[in-house]
Amino acid sequence: MTRAELRAGLREAGVYLVTEESLSAGRRSEEIVAAALEAGVRAVQVREKDGSARRALEIAIAVRELTRRYGALLIVDDRIDIALAAGADGVHLGQNDLPVATARLLLGDSQIVGLSITDAGQLAAPDAAEADCLGVGAIFRTDSKADAKLTGLALLEAARRASDAWATRSAELGRAPVVAIGGINAGNAALAARAGADTVAVIAAISAAADPGRAAAELLEAMRLSRGAA
Asked: Which one of the listed residues 27, 55, 145, 194 is annotated catalytic?
């Protein structure tokens, strides 16, 4: 797929599963991803902060096979080497990782580069305008990332305004999707959508659930209903 198609896929996904095996109640990340994809999730990020690089690559390769089967996107958190080795659709970077332009040089122009936004000032930096996706948060309180800065909904609204403005300068790529992350579940996903999120990213809401497939389906339904009400 082209970058434009990958951006569109993230805008339309509604729910974006982020893996973390240490938060998966003793289950393997591949098992969680399979259940989520079966329920309808069409975007997955492999983010394995607590395990080894070797295990993260193993997960990414397995998830790549699953996402191809379901026609879903695969993004790898931080690790450009793992993204390349697994044939992922792109990477997601934090503010302290490589610049977006450098990551794109390494990956090539057919893959996407997402960027975490945790402060309004970051939206003025070149990286933000060059990113293919803005991951904004933590929107709500979260236990999945100990050092997460609580941003609330206001930053999400600001990111959506910025994304809308940049879209006029890159019409061929389409608007960069805005993804809300941090403490999101089926009960509050609609708040994030109304504030400007195209898609919500979740870790524990699916990975730690007793029934990951059902949790994924409930999140997808919440996002579907919020879009219908827009």
From this structure: 145
The pLDDT of residue 141: 87
pTM of full prediction above 0.90: yes
pLDDT digits (tens, 9 = 90+) for 9-21: 999 999 999 999 9
Residue 47 annotated as catalytic: yes
* Token code pair at residue 17: 């599963």
Residue spans of alpha helices (H) in the chain? 3-13, 29-39, 53-70, 80-86, 100-107, 126-130, 152-167, 189-194, 204-207, 212-229
Summarised one tens digit per residue, pLDDT across range 59-80 is 999 999 999 999 999 999 999 9
The secondary element (H helix, E strand) that includes residue 197 is none
Instruction: Enumerate the β-bridge partners of residue 180.
Output: 136, 200
Q: Given 3, 11, 42, 47, which residue is catalytic?
A: 47
Q: Is 145 a catalytic site residue?
A: yes
Confidence band for 229, pLDDT divided at 50, 70 and 90: low
In sign, the C-alpha dihedral spanning 214, 216, 219, 220 is negative
- Closest Cα to residue 159, out of 189, 116, 191? 116
Burial class (CB in 10 A: 0-12, 13-18, 19+), 168: exposed
- Catalytic-labelled residue, pool 116, 144, 207, 226: 116
Domains of the chain plus CATH, in order, are 3-229 (3.20.20.70)
